[in-house]
Amino acid sequence: MTDRRRINGPPSGTRPAVFASSLKSASGISTGRPQRERQPNELRKLFLKTGLIPSASGSAYLEFEPSASLAAARSSPQSLIPPSSALKLACTVHGPKPLPRSASFSPNLVLTTHVKYAPFAARQRKGHIRDASERDLGVHLETALRGVIVAERWPKSGLDITITILEAEDDRWWGDAPDSHDAPWGMMNVLAGCITAASAAIADARIDCLDLVAGGVAAIVSDETAEGETSSPKLMLDTDPAEHKSILSACAVAYMPSRDEITEIWLKGDHSKASLGTDDKNLGHEALIDGAVNAARGAHTVLAEAVKESAERFAGLMLGGNAA
Amino acid sequence: MASTAPSLTLPPSQFARLQPHAYLLAHLSPPASSNQPSIRANGRAPSQFRTTYANTGSLTHTNGSAVVRVGDTTAVCGVRAEILPTDDIASWSVSHSSSSNTNKRRKIIKSENEEEEEEEEEEEEDPNEESHIQDLNLLVPNLSLSTGCAPGFIPGAPPSALAQSLSHQILNLLHTTRLVRAEDLRVWYQPPSLGGEELERHNAEEQMDVDVDEAARKDGEVKAFWVLYIDIMIVSMAGNPFDAAWAAVLAALRDTKLPRAWWDVDNEMVVCSDVVGEARKLTLRGLPVASSFAVFEADAAAGWRAVIVPDAEEERLIEEGDRKGIQRRWVLADPDGYEEGLSQERACVVVDKVRGKTVIVKMEKNGGWALDGKELKGLVDVSERRWEEVKTILEQC
Amino acid sequence: MVGPTASLSPLVRADGSASYQCPSTGSNILGSVNAPVELPGRRDALKPEDATVEVFVKPGTAPASVGERYVEGIIRGVVGRLILGRERGYQRRGVVITLAIVGGENVSRGDSYLTLLPALLHTALLALLSASVPLSMTFSATVLSVDAAGKITREPSAEDAAAAKSLHVLAFSSKGHLLLNESQGAFDFDTWERVRERASAICHGTSVGEDGDVAMVESADGQPLEGTIRETVEDQVHRDYSWKIDAA
């Protein structure tokens, strides 16, 4: 397939590089899995900054702190295969602006969300055209935000939220067979990041909201112990899928702390295996959602800080404008 | 406060929006009495570029990456290398099997005194060999503007005409500057020749030795090529995307490392080593730097009425008059979005310096008739200075 | 040196059209202009007091792709500045120029069409004249290649262009302004100045020295291009009005 609007590569297509080390026997690699060095309820640090894209009405840039293994690989590179990756994304908000002539009347603000991975964002090269997972993320993000924005204040207007993911989270550790984890767990983390960044960008665009919505992820994982056996399932906050052998179920939420409301919940995986046989209350749905909410609370503190910074910048601008 | 009469003057920000042309003109030609220097609305001198910042190697899943920020325009470039086995190239066996054994040399560039070797190398380079990059589509740059970088670009829409022509300009410049060496992109295979023992030894040698004997390379065979996917995301757009995008491409290619790759006979595929120490950086030819300009004209209406357009000769006379007082045109380096909207004529100069001598690699002007020989000469001089600036920035990142 | 040949209005249904052959570069272009036309789907994008110029370039063998967008941009830049879009009947309307490459060498991937560009520009100009679109001035363009020894070749063939060290396309207005310059490949400014002088001579038959002297150049370049364009139009006008001239 040639795309006439883009520059195409060789007509026969190309293959991703195959590393000799990944061809070796499985036992050789399984030792290389990055280990989680955080406490189960310890979150990764977030970098969130607003207003980096002045041509947009609001913008935010979000970056996750690289996990310990990635940070080590960065400072003293050993292998060309990165052990894991850390989310990096840019979010812009354009609007509120008049709806196009062709659109039908709407008494509310019409929200459009668009999530796109850069071609180099993931371990596998992404196409230029949005695929199903990217559309899926867009829909989840829209539901998360629709409940937060006070939409009736802008009739006949549209708001475009665009997220460009420069680096995505891994779905699994690269050494695992592609089907060993049955779901794209990395998408959960990406969604949580999208929600937090979009929230900051919307606040930066001075759109009225009920609260600052923040995204969080929790998962029930069963890790390998040193002896090679799978340990009992545990609840972990803000999981990096590369660090876990098997994730039983995961949950991403969009949460408004001051109203204690959830606007979006995305729960994936089969954790009947985990809760079966144990009476552990910590492994039910409730616990999983609570975990995700706790993670969101953590993100909220960073979010509030970033929005405060944005407001101060805006106030400074207003003062400066008046003085001149 | 409340008693002050409602003022009829507009704050500058609103004046800028309502009367953009007059606003910029007022900045560039302040009244003689005010004693103010002629300065652009953004506070820059006409030939001043925006502050540029570059950072490389921050994206995990790329072979090389860079973020370049020129003022408020931000470009992120990621280079991904993938394998194109020659078996997959339809015309390969026809066009190359006969010639592959002739005189292919493997140039192993070892050192810092590469600068000196460069010239010889340029001359020795077989043009047919170099054309591989162009013929086999080994460089695939694509620029995306649908990132929400500016209000006009609809996310999710196919690339706009602007994005397409920027992609094309980057590809064209990669080809004409021959920045990437075809040799860097080849994956060689040394077929075990001559009898049993020799074969054994040869194989062993190949496994261990990175730099196989140059002589032995003579009858080697190209088994695959690296294809570089160069994707540029314009994250923030505030005018002059080409300079930022090209600088990002340049920085990312300088950062690009290709793993050592070889043909694995048993698996019949190209296999790479993940050892960082064995990976090679690309050896680029030169450092071409792009500088773009826009021409702002005092009389916005000039040019669309036949009677107004003066002859080239008359023009020269008017210019004489310029020196005495009124200036009609300003050439603005590195225009921001606001200035781009107010000017029609554009120029772009790409220069490189080879041992202190300036080489122009590309020079474009279009959309008007203000720039001719003398003005272009001035732009080349400005571009030379810009080259020094960008070189320092790229070397520090 | 065989000069280019051109004819006006070969197409009946278009408002204006032109075909243009340049033997030395081997290009053969057919162009049509429709103006002024309504551009319905683009009401929001139209400028309120100016015409919108659209250029389409269709390659002969392949579907149009990224490279064509770039060339279209260049051609739009040149003719867009010459078309008097504020004349009556043109505001908020479109001038649509379509250029089809009928014959000649294929343009390879990533190539900027420089060898074909003068032919495309001339075709666009002639088609605009044929459609009686008001223009502030006319222009003529040429392509020159400089080889490693510094020798300048006029309108090189595709092979010559590939072997050249640098390639330059220049367009001059009928009033002597430099309208367009597209140079690629390694060169220095002195080379460019020589190229500019030569191009000016090819287009206008005269070169203007720094001191303002107008010197006639050798007829090695044959008739200046400016004249060729003018004659093509004159011939056509002559034919179109032959009934009137005969009657007189």
Automatic annotation (TrEMBL), chain A:
Gene3D superfamilies: GHMP Kinase, N-terminal domain. One of its GO terms (biological process) is U4 snRNA 3'-end processing. Residues 22-33 have a biased composition (Polar residues). Keywords: Cytoplasm, Exosome, Nucleus, RNA-binding, rRNA processing. GO terms for cellular component: cytoplasmic exosome (RNase complex); nuclear exosome (RNase complex); nucleolus. It is found in: Cytoplasm; Nucleus. Residues 42-207 form the Exoribonuclease phosphorolytic domain. GO terms for molecular function: RNA binding. It comes from the Eukaryota. InterPro entries: ExoRNase_PH_dom1, PNPase/RNase_PH_dom_sf, Ribosomal_Su5_D2-typ_SF, RNase_PH. Coiled coil: none annotated. Residues 1-39 are annotated as: Disordered. Belongs to the RNase PH family. This is Exoribonuclease family protein.
Automatic annotation (TrEMBL), chain B:
InterPro entries: ExoRNase_PH_dom1, ExoRNase_PH_dom2_sf, Exosome_comp_Rrp42_subfam, PNPase/RNase_PH_dom_sf, Ribosomal_Su5_D2-typ_SF. Belongs to the RNase PH family. Residues 113-128 have a biased composition (Acidic residues). This is Ribosomal RNA-processing protein 43. The lineage of its organism: Eukaryota, Fungi, Dikarya, Ascomycota, Pezizomycotina. SUPFAM superfamilies: Ribonuclease PH domain 2-like, Ribosomal protein S5 domain 2-like. Its main location: cytoplasm. Keywords: Cytoplasm, Exosome, Nucleus, RNA-binding, rRNA processing. It is found in: Cytoplasm; Nucleus, Nucleolus. Pfam families: RNase_PH (PF01138). Residues 48-114, 127-259 form the Exoribonuclease phosphorolytic domain. GO terms for cellular component: cytoplasmic exosome (RNase complex); nuclear exosome (RNase complex); nucleolus. Residues 92-132 are annotated as: Disordered. GO terms for molecular function: mRNA 3'-UTR AU-rich region binding. The keyword Nucleus applies. One of its GO terms (biological process) is TRAMP-dependent tRNA surveillance pathway. It comes from Aspergillus heteromorphus CBS 117.55. Signal peptide: none annotated.
From TrEMBL, chain C:
The keyword Nucleus applies. Coiled coil: none annotated. One of its GO terms (biological process) is rRNA processing. Its main location: nucleus. One of its GO terms (cellular component) is nuclear exosome (RNase complex). Gene3D superfamilies: GHMP Kinase, N-terminal domain. Keywords: Exosome, Nucleus, rRNA processing. The keyword rRNA processing applies. One of its GO terms (molecular function) is RNA binding. It comes from the Eukaryota. It is found in: Nucleus. PANTHER family: EXOSOME COMPLEX COMPONENT, EXOSOME COMPLEX COMPONENT RRP46. This is Exosome complex subunit Rrp46. It comes from Aspergillus heteromorphus CBS 117.55.
